[in-house]
C-alpha cells in the first residue's frame, strides 16, 4: 500500500515533480497557438504548415495516450514518466532548433509521443505514492497547480514570442525537464500494476494514429483536390475500420469496444466530440484573429485569452458540486449554449476591436459556459461505466476530446474557404473567421441537444471525479480508476 504522506519532504518532492511534468504538456498546448503567426513568418510557412504544427502533436498524443498509460502500469510508472519527460524535452529542443516547417512538424509529432508517456503518468504517480488519507488533497493540489500552469501559458508564450522569440516557447521545456527528471528518479517510488497485461495493443495504437494522421492530411490538403488527398482519405477510412476490427477481436485491446455498450457513455462522448471540436477550433483561430486582424502583439493576444482559464480555475469545483446535487443534464445542456453564445459574440472582434467592449464579453460568456459543462461532463463519463473501468473511460474521453480538436483545426479553414496565405491578410482571415465561429456555435448547439435528449441522472453510488479543479481549455481532466490506474482493464 502507498504510504507517503503529503506533509513529508518526500511527499512535497513527488507533488513538485508531477506538477512540473504535467505543466510541460499543459504549457505547450496553450502557448503554441499564440506563436503561430511568428512561426509562419519566420519559416515562410503557409496556413497548412501552421495547422500541422498544432495537429502533428495532437495526432500522436491522441493516438498513443491510452497505450502510454498501459506501459506505465506494466514497466513502472516512474520509469515511463521519466522517459516521457526526457523524450518530450528532446523533441522540444528539436522544435526550437527547427530550420524549416517540415522539421518543426516532425518534431511536434515526436513531442506528442513524449506527451502520451508523461501525461497519464503524472496523476498515476500521485495515486500510487500517497497514503489514502492524503491522496485526495494531493490530487487537488496537483490539478490546481497544473491549472495555474495552463493559465500562465498564453501570457508566458506571448511574452517569449515578443521578446526572445518563438523558439523559446519550445526551448523552455528543456530546463523544466532537467529539473523534473532528477527529482523523480531520486524521490518518487517506483510502482506498477501486478495485474497489468503483458501484451500491448501496439497495432491498435498504430492504426489509431495512422487513421487520425491520414484523415487530417486529407482535410488540410483538400483544397488542392489531388489524387494524394483522395488516397489519404480512403487510406484513413480503411485504417479507422481496421482499428475498430482490431479492438473488437483483439485479446487485450487498448479501447475495448464493449465499453460503448453503455448508451450513456456513448452519448456523453458524442457531447465531448462536439464541445471539444468547437474549443479546439476556437482557440486555434482566435489567437490568429487577435494578431492578424485586430493587430495585437503576441503578448496582448495571449493575455486576452486568460479569462476562460481563470474562470475554470475559480469555479470548476463549484460547478462539479452543483452537478452532484442537480444531476448533469441541465449543465450539459446549458453549458454548450453559453459557449455558443460566446462564439457568436466573437463576431464583433474585427479590425479596431476593443478589448473591454468586444473581446472580454465574449470570453466571459464562453468561460462561464466551459465552467458549467466540463465538470459534469467528466462526472457523467465516470458514472456511465463500472467503477473498475472508470479510469479507462476517462482515458477514452480524453483521447476523444483531443481527436475532436485536431479534426476541427484541420477542417475549419477548409469549410470557411481560407487560402494558404489567409493568415497573412487581415481582410481574408477576417472574412473566414466569422463563418468559422458560426460553425463552432452550431456544433455546440448540437452537443447541447444530444445532452438534453440522452443524459440521465447517474446512480448515487457511481464514482466521482477526483480532479475538482481544472484549468485546461482544450481537454477534460484525466481521472484514475477507483484503486487502480487510468488504463486498467
TrEMBL record:
Main location: membrane
TM ranges: 12-36, 48-68, 80-99, 105-126, 138-160, 166-188, 200-220, 226-246, 267-288, 294-317, 329-347, 359-384, 396-416, 436-455
UniProt subcellular location: Cell membrane
Entry-linked CDD domains: MFS_MMR_MDR_like
Any one GO biological process: response to antibiotic
Domain Major facilitator superfamily (MFS) profile: 14-459
Membrane topology: Multi-pass membrane protein
Region (Disordered), start-end ranges: 466-489
Keywords linked to the UniProt accession: Antibiotic resistance, Cell membrane, Membrane, Transmembrane, Transmembrane helix, Transport
GO cellular component, one term: plasma membrane
PANTHER family xrefs: EXPORT PROTEIN, MAJOR FACILITATOR SUPERFAMILY MULTIDRUG TRANSPORTER MFSC
Record-linked NCBIfam families: efflux_EmrB
Name this protein carries in UniProt: MFS transporter
Amino acid at each position: 500500500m502507498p504510504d507517503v504522506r503529503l506533509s513529508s519532504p518526500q511527499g512535497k518532492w513527488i507533488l513538485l515533480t508531477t506538477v512540473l511534468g504535467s505543466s510541460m504538456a499543459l504549457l505547450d498546448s496553450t502557448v503554441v497557438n499564440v506563436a503561430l503567426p511568428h512561426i509562419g513568418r519566420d519559416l515562410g510557412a503557409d496556413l497548412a504548415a501552421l495547422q500541422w504544427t498544432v495537429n502533428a502533436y495532437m495526432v500522436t498524443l491522441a493516438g498513443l495516450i491510452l497505450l502510454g498509460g498501459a506501459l506505465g502500469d506494466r514497466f513502472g510508472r516512474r520509469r515511463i514518466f521519466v522517459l516521457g519527460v526526457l523524450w518530450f524535452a528532446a523533441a522540444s529542443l528539436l522544435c526550437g532548433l527547427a530550420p524549416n516547417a517540415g522539421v518543426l512538424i516532425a518534431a511536434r509529432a515526436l513531442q506528442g509521443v513524449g506527451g502520451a508517456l508523461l501525461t497519464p503518468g503524472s496523476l498515476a504517480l500521485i495515486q500510487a505514492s500517497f497514503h489514502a488519507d492524503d491522496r485526495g488533497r494531493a490530487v487537488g493540489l496537483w490539478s490546481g497547480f497544473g491549472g495555474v500552469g495552463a493559465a500562465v501559458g498564453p501570457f508566458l508564450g506571448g511574452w517569449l514570442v515578443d521578446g526572445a522569440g518563438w523558439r523559446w516557447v519550445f526551448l523552455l521545456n528543456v530546463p523544466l525537464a532537467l529539473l523534473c527528471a532528477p527529482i523523480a528518479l531520486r524521490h518518487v517510488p517506483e510502482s506498477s500494476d501486478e495485474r497489468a497485461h503483458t501484451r500491448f495493443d501496439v497495432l491498435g495504437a498504430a492504426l489509431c494514429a495512422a487513421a487520425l494522421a491520414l484523415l487530417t492530411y486529407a482535410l488540410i490538403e483538400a483544397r488542392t483536390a489531388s489524387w494524394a488527398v483522395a488516397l489519404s482519405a480512403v487510406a484513413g477510412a480503411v485504417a479507422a475500420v481496421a482499428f475498430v476490427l482490431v479492438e473488437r477481436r483483439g485479446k487485450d485491446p487498448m479501447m475495448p469496444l464493449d465499453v460503448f455498450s453503455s448508451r450513456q457513455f456513448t452519448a456523453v462522448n458524442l457531447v465531448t466530440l462536439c464541445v471539444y471540436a468547437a474549443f479546439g477550433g476556437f482557440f486555434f483561430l482566435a489567437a490568429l484573429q487577435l494578431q492578424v486582424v485586430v493587430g495585437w502583439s503576441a503578448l496582448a493576444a495571449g493575455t486576452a485569452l486568460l479569462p476562460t482559464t481563470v474562470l475554470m480555475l475559480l469555479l470548476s469545483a463549484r460547478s462539479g458540486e452543483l452537478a452532484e446535487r442537480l444531476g448533469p443534464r441541465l449543465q450539459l445542456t446549458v453549458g454548450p449554449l453559453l459557449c455558443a453564445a460566446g462564439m457568436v459574440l466573437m463576431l464583433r472582434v474585427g479590425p479596431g476591436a476593443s478589448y473591454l467592449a468586444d473581446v472580454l464579453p465574449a470570453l466571459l460568456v464562453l468561460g462561464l459556459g466551459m465552467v458549467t459543462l466540463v465538470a459534469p461532463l467528466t462526472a457523467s463519463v465516470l458514472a456511465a461505466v463500472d467503477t473498475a473501468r472508470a479510469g479507462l473511460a476517462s482515458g477514452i474521453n480524453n483521447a476523444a476530446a483531443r481527436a475532436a480538436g485536431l479534426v476541427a483545426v484541420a477542417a475549419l479553414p477548409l469549410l470557411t474557404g481560407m487560402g494558404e496565405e489567409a493568415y497573412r491578410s487581415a481582410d481574408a482571415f477576417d472574412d473566414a473567421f466569422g463563418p468559422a465561429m458560426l460553425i463552432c456555435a452550431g456544433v455546440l448547439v448540437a452537443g447541447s441537444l444530444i445532452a438534453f435528449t440522452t443524459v440521465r441522472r447517474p446512480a448515487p453510488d457511481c464514482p466521482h471525479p477526483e480532479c475538482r479543479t481544472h484549468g485546461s481549455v482544450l481537454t477534460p481532466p484525466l481521472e484514475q480508476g477507483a484503486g487502480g490506474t487510468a488504463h486498467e482493464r
